[in-house]
Design brief:
The complex is a heterotrimer. Chain A is mostly helical. Chain A has helices at about 1-20, 25-35, 45, 50, 60-70, 75-80, 90-105, 110-120, 125-135, 165-220, and strands spanning about 110, 140-145, 150-155. The longest helix of chain A is centred in the last third of the chain and has 55 residues, at about 165-220. Chain C has helices at about 10-20, 35-50, 90-105, 125-140, 150-155, 190-195, 210-215, 220-230, 230-235, 235-260, 280-310; strands at about 30-35, 55-65, 65-80, 110-115, 145-150, 160-165, 200-205. In chain C, helix 10 runs antiparallel to helix 11. The chains are: A mainly alpha, B mainly alpha, C alpha/beta. The interface of B and C includes residues 27, 30, 31 and 34 of B.
């Protein structure tokens, strides 16, 4: 939520810029957006019609670049480097940060080896520095680095832009969560009713026993 | 609203909160301990 | 209207001090109103002491038969139950603090003291009773408040009691039975000997409109802390101590049964007053321990179902 608040203004700024420009001017704006150190979401920019119009033009590679930053990873860039513009250092850094977010989507425990392979990092020290300085300090990820087990335990990861097929599964998960919560509430209500009933029965039983004791005492006296 | 969708996505990624064998062991042990305390209390009441 | 209670009428308070209505009626003060701020400060201070008793003073005013506690401050002393006069170490601090308060525009006087009983309930020990009697002799109106931070965590609500002592030699009429609380075996004698020398006051709470606003803002944080913690894990030592104490009480009750010829069969005419048999008290204590454990487990199970049973 903090991330979203931080980048809300940036998104608005870039959306305005993109809406007011067309064609080749969009290329520089896209490069600026993908290099910005505080911006990790690009679907709003992608949704602007001017950007969509880049498809099939000489600047379509910038549209692909924006799509890569919205949904892709560093490995995807390496595979498709031929059809994408060269990245500057800031863009490389951002893409690697977004790669960490994508990896965190699939698993909460990320082994160092897997991370080093995905991020093209040669040693553990470099990887840990990257995770701490570029990911945790920028607030996109929170977690614990376990040097003994050589893994990164992710406690929180900021959300990336949604891919088209993701919405359905999200809705399904939310529905499951809702039904679990509803069932839990029903169970709790049933237990409350049961506890009340048992308490009433218990009181009734106690009263019967006390009455019987009084009767016996009277009989004895 | 893309911002909301991203937040929801981030939230759903956190589920389940804990999922490990060790946690299950500790949780069940705590469960058993509490049930044992309850059992002992019933015996005491009797 | 809710903030009107915070207004300090110096002339009215001075007049009340001169009239001294409590001098003729040892039971004059019946109610205590504690502000949210004072309660928070006292509980946080008590909790910070862990298993060591801590103490502090309360500032406020009076309103008829009610003592109103507006604020509280900690004193730099510990282990109040281990010394006869722990307050003595903090006299200089108390004087400095009160003077500085007045200079800062805080008009309320000290109206009482609070201390903690970690894990053994809200009541006044012999030392507490003598301290409070002394205070009531020279610093009226004065109130004693006891907080149990350990039971606060395990019960899920603030364990707090407000007390005032009777004057020396005063014999109170039969008191209404106060709410039962478990007293550990090693404290039961201290409790029993002095329990007739003081009475408890009804406690209510109040907060300002600003307090309401701030507490609303902190609502989410409160829930995160509540959901993240578990009394089962945090209070393990206390529960173990309670169970051990229960076992000792059972043993003692068993020994008493063995030594008494006719057990607990006493004819009604010989019974001076209705007193719960020892075994009934033990049963109640065991039920209380169990209920707290079950509550803790219930919260763990509910959290597990809510947050661990759903998978994307």
């Amino acid at each position: 939520m903090d991330i979203e608040q931080k980048q809300a203004d940036l998104i608005e700024h870039f959306v305005k810029q993109v809406s007011a420009n067309k064609g080749s001017f969009l290329a520089s704006i896209i490069i600026e957006a993908t290099s910005n150190p505080s911006l990790f979401a690009f679907s709003e920019i992608l949704a602007v019609s001017n950007v969509a119009e880049l498809q099939g033009t000489e600047h379509s590679m910038y549209l692909n670049l924006l799509r890569l930053f919205a949904h892709g990873t560093w490995s995807d860039y390496k595979i498709n480097a031929g059809s994408l513009p060269n990245l500057v250092a800031e863009q490389v850094l951002k893409l690697k940060q977004l790669t960490v977010l994508t990896l965190a989507e699939t698993s909460k425990v990320l082994p160092y080896d897997h991370l080093m392979q995905e991020l093209d990092v040669t040693n553990v020290r470099e990887l840990e520095d990257f995770l701490i300085n570029e990911c945790m300090y920028s607030g996109i990820v929170r977690g614990k680095l376990d040097q003994l087990r050589r893994c990164f335990e992710v406690q929180f990861a900021a959300g990336r832009d949604l891919r088209p097929a993701q919405l359905g599964s999200m809705i399904q998960t939310l529905t499951n969560w809702l039904s679990t919560s509803d069932n839990l509430l029903l169970t709790i209500q049933e237990k409350i009713k049961w506890a009340d009933t048992m308490s009433e029965l218990d009181k009734k039983h106690k009263k019967e026993v006390d009455d019987r004791v009084e009767d016996v005492k009277k009989t004895l006296s | 609203e893309n911002s909301l969708l991203r937040q929801v996505s981030s939230l759903l990624r956190r589920l389940p909160a804990i999922e490990s064998g060790k946690f299950q062991d500790d949780f069940l042990m705590e469960y058993n301990d509490t049930l044992l305390v309850t059992y002992l209390a019933m015996l005491t009441n009797c | 209207a809710s903030d009107a209670i915070f207004f300090y009428d110096e002339s009215a308070q001075t007049k009340f001090q001169q009239e001294k209505p409590w001098a003729n009626d040892p039971h004059y003060f019946k109610r205590v109103k504690i502000s949210a701020l004072a309660l928070l400060k006292m509980v946080v201070h008590a909790r910070s002491g862990g298993t060591i008793e801590v103490m502090g003073l309360m500032q406020g005013k009076t309103d008829g038969d009610a003592i109103i506690v507006m604020d509280a401050f900690a004193l730099p002393v510990e282990g109040t139950e281990t010394r006869v006069n722990a307050q003595a170490d903090a006299y200089e601090y108390m004087v400095d603090y009160s003077q500085t308060n007045k200079q800062a525009g805080r008009l309320e006087n000290v109206v009482g003291w609070y201390h903690s009983h970690p894990g053994y309930g809200c009541w006044l020990s012999g030392i507490d009773v003598s301290t409070q009697m002394l205070n009531q002799q020279f610093q009226e109106p004065f109130l004693a408040v006891v907080i149990d931070p350990t039971r606060t965590v395990s019960a899920g609500k603030v364990e707090i009691g407000a007390f005032r002592t009777y004057p020396e030699g005063f014999k109170p009429a039969d008191e209404p039975i106060s709410e039962y609380q478990t007293i550990p075996l090693n404290k039961i004698e201290d409790f029993g000997v002095h329990c007739k020398q003081y009475y408890s006051l009804d406690i209510t709470y109040f907060k300002s409109s600003l307090d309401c606003h701030l507490l609303d803002l902190l609502w989410n944080k409160y829930w995160v802390n509540t959901l993240s913690s578990s009394p089962l894990l945090g209070n393990g030592d206390y529960v173990a101590g309670q169970i051990s104490d229960l076992a000792e009480k059972l043993e003692q009750a068993e020994n008493q049964m063995a030594h008494t010829r006719f057990g607990s069969i006493i004819t009604p005419s010989q019974r001076k007053k209705e007193e719960e048999p020892a075994l009934a008290k033990i049963t109640r204590d065991s039920t209380k321990i169990t209920v707290e454990q079950v509550h803790g487990l219930m919260s763990q199970v509910i959290k597990d179902i809510l947050f661990n049973s759903v998978r994307p």
